Fold each of these.
Amino acid sequence: MRVITSKDFDYFLKRWNVTLESPPLETNTSLVAKVNRHNQSYILKLSLEEGDEQTGAVLRYYDGRGAVRLIQEEGRATLLERALPGTPLSYLLRRGEDDKATFIFCEIIHKLHEKQTVIGYYPSVEDLQESFESYLLSGDLQISETLVREAQSLYQELVNSQKKVILLHGDLHHENVLYDEKRGWLAIDPKGYMGEPTYEIGAMLRNPLGYSHLYQHPEFLDRRVDIICETLGFDRERVVGWAFAQAVLAGIWSIEAGNSPNWFVEIAIAIKKILRR
C-alpha cells in the first residue's frame, strides 16, 4: 500500500491552484496544511493510509450541515472549508463553560444526524469490536482482562440491540468542533461509521485529553450526560454504556499505536461509576 508523503502536496497545490500558508503538519492519520486561493483560506488534507478516514465522502454527505464543507476531492486528498478563526470547543471548557460547550455539542449532533438518507457503503461500529478480542489474545497486561471483557460484553450487547442506525461522525470531540465567525460552530475530521445516534457521545465524554476533572469528579461527566439526554432525548443507559465501552476500546487503540492507555482506563473507570446510578 502506497503511503502518501509531503511530496504529494506539490501535485495537489498545482492541481487545485492553491498556495501554502504554512508547512504541512503530520498527525497520526494525515498530512494537513493551511492553503490559499484567491485570498480565500482552505485546508488541504492528505490521508496517510488508504481507508483510514472517509472525510470527503462524509462531508459531501453532510453538505455543510453542522460541518465544514468539502470543496474538492481526489483519492485520499481533500480540499476543505477552513473555519476562521478556528477556535476549538475545548476553549469554552477551559474557561469553565462546560455546560455551554455541551449544549453546542447537542446542536452540532442534531444538525449532523437530521435528514439522513445514506447511499453507499460506510463501515459499521460493529466492525470496531474486533479489537477487544485481538487485545485479549495479545497477552498485553496494561489494561485488566476484567475491564476489557466487561467492555467487550457491553459493546456487543449494545451493537446487537441497535434500532435506528445512521451515519455518524464517529470522532466528535472538543478538538473536532471549531468556531467560524460566519457559520458558527462546525465539526471537522469525521471518521464515518454506521451506528445508532447514542454512540456519537462517547468521544466527547472522554475528551479533552488531560482534563483531570473528567475522571477526578464523575459528577462532572454525569452533568454532561444529563444535558445531552434531556436535550436530544437520548437513552441515558445506552449513552453511558457506549461511552464506557468506547473508552476501553480507545485504550486498546492507544496501545496499538505505541502509547500509554492510562488516560482512557481512568476515564473508563469514571464513566463506569455513573453507568447505573
Amino acid sequence: MNNIRAAITGIQGYVPPYILTNKELEGMVDTSDEWIITRTGIRERRILKGEGLGTSDMAAEAVKALLLKTNTSPEEIGLLICATVTPDMLFPAAANIISDKAGIKNAFSFDMNAACSGLLYALVTGSKFIETGTFKKVIVVGADKMSSITDYTNRENCILFGDAAGAILLEPSSSDDIGIMDSILRTDGSGKDYLHMKAGGSVRPSTHETVAAKEHYIYQEGQTVFKFAVTKMADVSAEIMEKNNLKSEDVSWLVPHQANLRIIDATARRMGIGKEKVMINIDRYGNTTGATIPLCLWEWENQLKKGDNIILAAFGGGFTWGAIWVKWAYDSK
C-alpha cells in the first residue's frame, strides 16, 4: 500500500517594489482611503513596473529564491505547475517560460487556470505526482500580474488587485504526521456570467472593437460574487474540518485567499476560530489571485511548527472554490 504523502518543504514569495497606495488611487478614480478600507480591508498593493515584464518574471524570482533556500538544484525538479490567469502570452505556458528563466531543464511544466482557486487546484494536482512516486520534487507556483487586466478607470475593480508570486516545493513523506492530508475542490460553471474577461478567447477574439470597449479587463458583478464567495468559502472550510473530525482548537492556522476582509472574517467565524489564527495580508498586497495563499505562508513561515494543522481556502471565478488540510512539515530555522 502506498503511504506516501506530499509535504510542503519550502515556501518563497516575491512582491514588486512599487507600492500603489489608496491615496494614489484617490487621484485616479472617484474613491477614498476610508471607502476602500471599509469595504475591502486593503490599504496598498504592489504593482509590477517596467517595460516587457510579466508574470513569469515575478514567478521566476520566487522559484530561484526557493531553490536556493531549500538547497535544491534545478535538475532535481520533475514538474512545475503555474497557477495563473495572467500568463505572459496565451502560449507557450507561463510555466514553460518560468522553467527556462529558473534553469529548470529536466521537468515538464504547464499552467492551470482556476482563477483565485488556482493555487489549490495546482497544489492538489502536484501532490498526486508525489504520492504516486512519479516525482521526488515538484514546484507549484501561484503568480499573477493583475495590473495587466485591471481597468484603472473602474473604481470598483481597480482598488482590489495587485501583482505578486509565490512558489511551493513539494516532496514525499512517509509520515502520517505531515503533508497534504485531504482536499475538497468544487466548481460551478454558471458563475462565468458574473466574473470573467469578455474578450480575448475563441468566442470573442481580440479586435479593435473589443479593445476600444475595454473588454480585455476584469468584469465582475461585485455583489453576486461577494455573496457566493462568502457562502462557499466558509462552507467548504467547515466541511473539510467536519470530514476529518477537526475541531476549532485543532486548527493552528486558516490561510484564506485574500480577496476581501469580510469574506475572510465570515470564513473564520464559520470555522469557529479567532482572528489570531488567521493569516491576513490583504491590507498590504490586495488580491494577487494565484499568489495570495503562498504569500501568506511565506510571511508566516517563521511562526509555523511541524505538525501544525493548516486549512487553505479559496474562492475564484468560474466559479471555483475549495479547501486543503495540510499538516506542516518543518520547523522554521
Amino acid sequence: MCAKILVIDDDPTLSELVSYILKAEGYTTVSANDGMAGLAKFAAEKPDLVLLDVTMPKMDGFEVCERIRQNADTPIIMLTAQGNEDHMVRGLDLGADDYVVKPFVLKPFLARVRANLRRAGAPLMAPDKVTYRDDYLTVDLENRRVLIKGEAVKLTPTEFKLLATLVKHKGRILEFRPLLEQVWGFEYIDDIDYLRVYIWHLRRKIEPDPKNPIYLLNELNTGYLFSPQR
C-alpha cells in the first residue's frame, strides 16, 4: 500500500503543488488549509506522514504539532518560509521530526519524505544493554530511559537515537557524516548544521549547563562524542 500524506498549509497554490508532486511519486495525499481542519483530517484519515506549515490562521503549526503528539507518533515535517532557528528549536521541542524551509528544492524534499517514512516503518532495533550512570545522568538503552537526578527526561525518538548512538560509542569521536547517516539516513549526510541544532537541543535537555557541556562534546570541525567530564 502507498503511504498517505496529510498536507496542512494555508497557501492553496503551494498545497496543490506539493500534493501534485507527491502523487506523481506514488503517494496518496489529503489536504487541509488551516490548523483546525488539519487536526480533523488527521483524526479521520490517519496519515502516515504530516507536512505541516508553521504560519496559519485559527491555529498555527506549533499548536497542531503539539496536539498531534499528545496522541500519535506519526512523523511530522514542519514547513516554514522563515528559516528561523528559534522556530526550528520550538518545533523540535513540540515533537516535530524534521524541518524544511520554503521554498524547498524538490529532490532533497522528496528524499526527506522518504527518509521519515522509512524511519517510521522500520522495525524497532533490539534493545542494547548499555547503561551509563552517574550521580546526575542515567542513560539506560535497554529500557529506553534517560533520567536527570532520578527524574525522567522526555526525548523525541530522534533525540534518543542520537544520544544512544553517542553513548554506545562512549569516548569515541563520531564524525559528522557517519553520525548523520546512522541517526537520520544517507539523505542527511551533508546537513551538518542540522546535526548542530539537534546536539544543542539535546544539550538543553541533559546538560547541567548547556553552554558548557560536560557530556556531549565536540571535536572542532570533526564530530561529536559522549565523554563525561564529571
